[in-house]
Amino acid sequence: MGFKQGFLWGGATAANQVEGGYDEDGRGLANVDVVPVGEDRFSIITGQVKHLDFDNQHFYPAKEAIDMYHRYKEDIALFAEMGFSTYRLSISWSRIFPKGDEKEPNEEGLVFYENLFKECQKYNIEPLVTITHFDIPMHLIKEYGGWRNRKVVDFYEKLCRVLFNRYKGLVKYWLTFNEINLLLHAPFMGAGIVFEKGENQKEVKYIAAHHELIASALATKIAHEVDPENQVGCMLAGGKFYPMTPNPLDVFAAQKADRENYFFIDVQSQGEYPPYALKELEREGIEVPFKKGDKELLKDNTVDFISFSYYSTRVASANTEDMDQGEANLLSTVDNPYLESTEWGWQVDPLGFRITMNDIYDRYRKPLFVVENGLGAIDTPDEDGYVEDDYRIKYLADHIQSMKDAVELDGIELLGYTTWGPIDLVSAGTGEMSKRYGFIYVDRDDYGNGTLKRTKKKSFNWYKKVIETNGEDLTNK
């Protein structure tokens, strides 16, 4: 027996990477809008350079993205043709509250998502909605300093109340924050943080982390109060760390790296700060800004399931000098000599997917949901826009087989699987369109040129067959 009946198959996107329409129908400016493609992107998303507005020196891909704001019906119809039973998408916070701190939401933004969810419903596609996917209104950054400020918890709570009430009966699967652990590695993208000169950056990150964890618990509480049918998950940038060698120092380095990765999920799933984190923060003189009732809120409102992205495993070493290092989904890693790499240097490890799933399931014993997995590659279309992407089919087939082994052979409870992304979109890490993931080719380059025409790749019909057979037929025929 492989995947159970009712297993949710689909794909995942994020508002800022697909929607565009950045200034339409009352939408306000968000952090992700002003992050450009090119060499300055990394220093901006990590909060090291203050860049809160557009300029004439850069191209900003999120402004238009792939224009799904105007084309969502066409795109959802294509997803339905593949047989999706779920579609993971995210809310643009500044579509609902343009500045973030208004008393009343923007009705035009609410109507857009209501129409989108109804379009999904038309095809029996279950929306899986990320409340914030690297997304915070710019006003909350300029006025309040982003998630470093406790007041932002209140604004997020208001957003959640509006969403859960407005979309009751349309959405039942929710994720509170996308890849919440990346706050520690891309704090401007993850929390709207720009560092001031001389401040303790680690302290700022963990203060922001506490506020997001409180906000996540509040969201979980409200979701269950509004509709007991609601299922709320957390979301981790997953990928097991291997020790570079059997040297105990390397094993310990890997354990520490894993713990940093799992810290947020430990709190969201188990309801309290783990002792290792409290001890480390204490050693560094960082005080967690607990307020009255915080500990009870965390304890009483743990998540229903654990969702995560998986692209690659990573390697940790006690001594990283003289070793090749790469970036895997914004997390630095020592290169693994036993694995091949993608064009962007991400190492391909299907067995590592199973290992990561077992690691997470052993740790939390809650249902898992794989909400991102895919291959970013350069696609070369023919004159009709068709791409013969056998490399993508192989990558996904190998990973789905490994996921199947985790369910069949290891007994892991798995709710569903959504590939990243089912249609070409703007890369969060690099801002490029040329780093393509989709089953659907979008005619657009890294600097906004192209017709935005959608064309099915070879992998489109392959994934359709995978879904039709509930993961039984992974062959490339």
UniProtKB/TrEMBL annotation:
The active site is at E372 (nucleophile). It comes from the Bacteria. PANTHER family: 6-PHOSPHO-BETA-GLUCOSIDASE ASCB-RELATED, GLYCOSYL HYDROLASE. PROSITE patterns: GLYCOSYL_HYDROL_F1_1, GLYCOSYL_HYDROL_F1_2. GO terms for biological process: carbohydrate catabolic process. One of its GO terms (cellular component) is cytosol. The keyword Hydrolase applies. This is 6-phospho-beta-glucosidase. One of its GO terms (molecular function) is beta-glucosidase activity. SUPFAM superfamilies: (Trans)glycosidases (SSF51445). Belongs to the glycosyl hydrolase 1 family. Pfam families: Glyco_hydro_1. The keyword Cell membrane does not apply. Keywords: Glycosidase, Hydrolase. InterPro entries: GH (IPR017853), GH_1_N_CS (IPR033132), Glyco_hydro_1 (IPR001360), Glyco_hydro_1_AS (IPR018120). It comes from Carnobacterium iners.
